[in-house]
Structures are given as C-alpha cells and as structure tokens.
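Provenance and format

Records in this collection were gathered into a single text stream. Each protein contributes a sequence line and a token line. The two records reproduced below are adjacent in the stream.
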Amino acid sequence: MQEPSIPFELRNYFEHSNIALALAAAEEDNPLVLVNEKFRSLTGYADEDVIGRNCRLLQKDADNSEARRRIHAFLEGDAQASVRTPIINFRKNGEPFVNLLYMSKLRDRSGRVRFLFASQYDVSRSHPERLAEYDAELAKTLSRMSPVLSENGIVIEGTLMAIANAASMIAQAKVTLSDLDGPDLA
C-alpha cells in the first residue's frame, strides 16, 4: 500500500486537538495512517503499534456484533455520511473500555473517499456532563477541520449525530464494562 498524502495542516490539526482522533486510508483494509496524542493516551498504543493496521485491533475478541454491523453499513455504502456507536475496545495493557466511536468519510473534490476520520471517547468511566463536553469539543473539531480540509480539496461528510440520552449511554457502558470485568473474562 502506498502511503496517502496527508495535508500538513490536517496533521498539525490532529496533533493539537483536545480529543482522540484517528485517520485511516480509504482503501484495502482501511489501515490507520495518523493518530494523535490523545488517541495514544486513551489506548496506550504508540504509532508503530497501530499505523498500517486496521483499528479493529482495539476490539481483540469482543463480540461487538451490533457496532460492527453499523460500521460495515457505513463503510459499504453512501447512504450514511457518518456513524456513531459504542464499541468495546481494549487498551494495549488489556484493560477494556467502552469507546463511543464517531466516523465520517473525507472526500476529495471528485467525490472519491480519501480518508476515514474517527474520534474515540471512553464512555465507560465517564460522567454525563463530560460526554456533553466531549460532544461540544467534537462539534468544534468538525467545524474547525472543515476549512482546513477544504483548502486541500477535501470535504468532511456528515455532521455530529446527537445523543438522545447521554446518562443512559453512560449507564449502559458501565454495565457492559462490569460484565467485561467479571470473573468470566479470560
């Protein structure tokens, strides 16, 4: 695979973002081409651990069937501009967490998908007010990235999907995490 050309402004934006971000090539197995410090801090993985690999490595053997179905539907068609779903991930040290994954397609002027943009947020150990802060930061990130991308002939698809009930999502994440932390997890 030839490494895609990532505009300097986008690289710079990623490194200065206040939230975990990842960028994957929109080809073959969608290998990661860029992650930021917040992603490295959240997951414990260094660039050399993840660049060139599909982000599903974070799932290990977790079922995630509903999340995978939603992600595949997003990747396989043009009906959805973005997807947002909770998904069980594991840090490099093996610690599980529930990741609220947001993904969007970045297209060039011809309409070809060049990259897959993703943001990650640990909802398993969070509080509802922090999720609202993250949502606000993600919305700012998307709006601030748009002109940076536009200058380089890239358009971000979709808008931030609202969460109907942040407290409910966090409560579900805590239940899921307690199931993962239980004695049956090997």
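Adjacent record:
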Amino acid sequence: MGIKAIFGGRPVLEFADEHSRRNFLRNAALIGVGATYVATNLGDPIAFGNADRTATSSAAKSDLDILNYALTLEYLESAFYTAGLKAKLLKGRELELVDPIQQHEANHVTAVRTTIKDLGGTPVAAPKVKFPDGTFASRASFLKTAGVFEELGVKAYHGQVPLVKDVAILAAAASIAGVESRHAAIIAQITGGNPFPAPIEAHLGMAPVLKAAMPFLAK
C-alpha cells in the first residue's frame, strides 16, 4: 500500500554534522531502508543502491536502531506542527484540536529519548529542519500535508512494532502508534476525509516511509 510523497519530495532534514548524518544512514540501513531513497556521498556507510547487510546482520533488528530512527521522524513531526501553529493558520475548533497534536509530538520526542537513555543507548541529535516554500502558505496546504504526514506516521509505527524484541520498547511504540492513529482521525475529520479508512490498520516498512517523507537527506 503506497502513500503520497510529502514536501514535494524535497530535502527537509539537515544534520548538524556529517557524523550525525552518516549515523542516521547507517541506522536506516540496519532496519532495511533502501539506499536508493537517500542522497549519498562517496564513503557513506551504505553504497548507492545497496546495503551491506552481511556486515550488519547481527544488528539488523536492533531495538535501539529502530528507536533512534523513530526519534528522527518524531523530531520532524514535532517541528512540522510547531511551525504550522506558529503560522497562525487555524482558529476556533480546528485550533483546539490541532494544538494538542503539537504538544503530543513534542512529548513523543521526550518519551523516545528517555526510553533510549533508560536502555543505555544514546539518542540521536535533532537535525535542522527546513520545510519547502509553500508548506505553511495556507490552511489548506498545512492541513493537507498534516493528513499525509499522520497517515505515514501511523503506518510507520505499525510497520516497526512487529520487529521490536524488548517488551518495554514494544509497549512504548504501541502506545505512540495508538496516539498517532487518533491524530490521523482528527486531521481527516477536519479536512473532510475518512477518519477510519479500514477495520485493520495498514503498515509500511521503513523503505517506503523514507521514500514518502524525505527521499533525500541534506548534509
């Protein structure tokens, strides 16, 4: 099941340094993201069009790698809603419904970072986010992007939940996935879409998620 690309397929993440960018690419490769969906440089940890899974097979399903990848996506989603509300495009009941979503996404960042630390891992640093011109030009463009974003987030979490081994991480991921589903339903209701499109939630692997959300990563 596919999903529309967001941000016009343009780069939106800019990492503070090459080390952070390469770590993100490495973690993406470990959990099965196709290298053809990211812009690579000579010497990147994965070759263009191929991921060296032989060397990383023991870490292919690493819970911490999954969490750090999810954290990067949460950084992006939190920044999106923060910028959207700052643009003051909504009012009344719409604002009452969307404002808590921004707060939830910020809380998700904190929750995932805390879980990573509690498990002895190191949370990835927040990348710089630069949204394309027009993303917040109007209420319609903001809400349309939010709708695609939320559907993508729901499918992304449900795609990773079956791969999680640790019970504590599984509980955290499942709880966030449930909230993301509520967000998707609210945005669909506001925009006139279907808040409950199927009796069983769809899911996507990380490769199509990355392709839809950010096909290129800026340095």
